[in-house]
Specification:
Elements (H helix, E strand, L loop, with lengths): L2 H12 L8 H23 L1 H4 L24 H21 L4 H11 L4 H8 L3 H17 L1
Length: 143
């Protein structure tokens, strides 16, 4: 049975006329949602076709092309990242294109914080955070 037919049958069973929604609108939105769900499912499960899958039960070998190694965080790499961000912020501060508050927002975003977290940490509104990041993005793209 086709996907559209399955959704139609489900809609016929679950439709409630007293909800004041025309059946065609109800069916259309249900079909769109089902198509989106199917697309996401395919996307999640198609990764096996794009990447080599390695079972952890297999013995680890090096065949000259593929090497299997443990991923361990390198503290020196994190220090280098922090140094790079600090140098970058210092450079922007010297150019005096952004205020100290703006630079703090940019720094927190560069460190990986979400806009909501930055808003909470700085006490600024989300609108302000978005505006600063948009200004920085425009400046970055034009330079």
């Amino acid at each position: 049975m086709a996907l559209a037919d399955t959704v139609l049958l489900d809609c016929l069973e679950s439709y409630r006329p007293y909800q004041n929604i025309p059946f065609t609108v109800y069916y259309k939105s249900a079909l769109q949602n089902k198509l989106i769900d199917e697309g996401k499912y395919e996307q999640r499960h198609s990764l096996n076709y794009h990447f080599d899958v390695v079972s952890l039960d297999r013995k680890v070998k090096e065949d000259g092309v593929t090497q299997y190694v443990d991923l361990i965080a390198d503290p020196q790499a994190e220090h280098a990242k922090n140094t790079l961000i600090k140098d970058w912020i210092d450079s922007l501060q010297e150019q005096k294109l952004f205020s100290a508050e703006d630079l703090e927002v940019i720094k927190l975003k560069a460190e990986g914080y979400k806009q909501s977290e930055i808003s909470r940490m700085t006490g600024k509104s989300r609108k302000y955070i978005r505006k600063v990041l948009d200004q920085f993005k425009n400046w970055y793209l034009n330079n």
